[in-house]
Amino acid sequence: MIVFNSIEDIALDTNTCVTIGNFDGVHRGHQELISRAVKYAKSRGLKSVVFTFANHPVNFFKPGYVKNIINQDQKKALVEKMGVDIYVNIPFDTSMTQISARDYAKKILVEKLRIKKIIVGHDFSFARKKEGTPEKLIQFGKDYNFEVEIVTPVLLDGKRVSSTDIRALISNGDVAAARKLLGQYYSIEGTVVEGRQIGRTIGFPTANIDYDRSMIIPKKGIYATLATVDGDVYCGATNIGTNPTVQGKKITIETYILDFDQMIYGKELKVEFVEFMRDEVKFDSKEALMDQLKKDVAYVRENYVSWLKSSIDKVK
Predict the structure, then answer these.
(1) Does residue 43 belong to any structural domain of this protein?
(2) Domain extent at residue 153
(3) Rounded CA separation 265/229 (Å)
(4) pTM of the full structure
(5) pLDDT average, residue stretch 132-153
(6) Residue 33 is part of a domain; what is its CATH number?
(7) What is the chain's mean pLDDT, rounded?
């Protein structure tokens, strides 16, 4: 997959089929747009293009207002996995707020991307003050000789799939429902750092990650998770919270990795959230906390260890 990180860098020698959007989460709705672009491009001898932004457009106007569902590396990897030929990932900046809808179509779509077809959602908008609408895009298509396909919303259980709803589900801890809309588990990645190491003293050493604060974080609680380190996947029990039983103050993301005893400080850990198990509570003693942690781990082991092993065996 060819990657361009600025409009100025784009230099193509072939015509394209393009889909445009922020694509945060690359959820099932986004996947529909992208798969259509890839399929059409292949059928017509074109190159497929995903045109997206390195930052959420809303955050340009209100920094930090919208939390991300996936980071930039995850988004790029998911798009590439879908077979896209060209990935344009530019910053949403002042130029994007000042360009007219016609100049956007002519100078970016036609002259830079050599567009022959564009596939967008029904609520797609572009250019200054969102003056570009699907209707205007259709008109520009007639003016500049490219086809426009407007895709209706993807529905799941009768409801439109949207990044806004996915963020709400994650915030409420409903990671299982979020997975249905995303098409993959919601995950957080980070470098394993040293914590207070209290878990080690009670027989439950955890991997504490330094996570990206721009990401949406599930609500406080204990989750059944998948933990990936050095390319290997393990079952885990992850706590998001302050660890009130041991007088914790700041929110941490700590994972007890089942059947794992390696020192992984400084390594990257990916935590995929499979199921919300319970709220974080303050126990009367460390002993009571230990008893509950044993139950949490037993639940994960009973429900997920065999399932994970069989899943890995199928891949092999």
Answers:
(1) yes
(2) 2-160
(3) 11
(4) 0.90
(5) 95
(6) 3.40.50.620
(7) 90
Amino acid code (one letter) for 273 = F
Give the whole-angstrom CA distance, residue 164 versus residue 144.
Answer: 34
> Tokens in use for 7?
């409009």
**Is 168 part of any domain?**
no
Instruction: State the pLDDT at residue 246.
Output: 58
List the single range of 62-76, 128-142, 184-198, 293-307 with lowest mean pLDDT.
Answer: 184-198
Residue type at 147 in one-letter notation: E
Query: What pLDDT sits at residue 315?
Result: 42
Question: Are 17 and 139 in a shared domain?
Answer: yes
Count structural domains, the chain.
2
Q: Is 7 exposed, middle or buried (0-12, 13-18, 19+ CB in 10 A)?
A: middle
Quick one: 231 and 146 in the same domain?
no
Residue 178: alpha-carbon gap to chain centroid: 11
The answer to whether residue 165 is domain-embedded is no
Three-point CA angle 253, 55, 165, nearest 5°? 65
Instruction: Please tell me whether residues 13 and 130 are part of one structural domain.
Output: yes
Q: E strand or H helix at 2, and its extent?
A: strand 2-4
| DSSP line for 70-115 | S-HHHHHHHHHHTT-SEEEEE---HHHHHS-HHHIIIIIIIIIT-E
pLDDT at residue 62, as a whole number: 92
CA 79 vs. chain centroid, Å, equals 11
Instruction: For residues 148 and 85, state if they share a domain.
Output: yes
Share of the chain above pLDDT 70, in %: 92
Q: Is 67 helix (H, G, I), strand (E, B) or coil?
A: coil
Q: How confident is the model at residue 316 (pLDDT cuts 50, 70, 90)?
A: very low
Domain membership flag for residue 178: no
Same domain (yes/no): 243, 129: no
Pairwise CA distance, residues 105 & 132, whole Å: 9
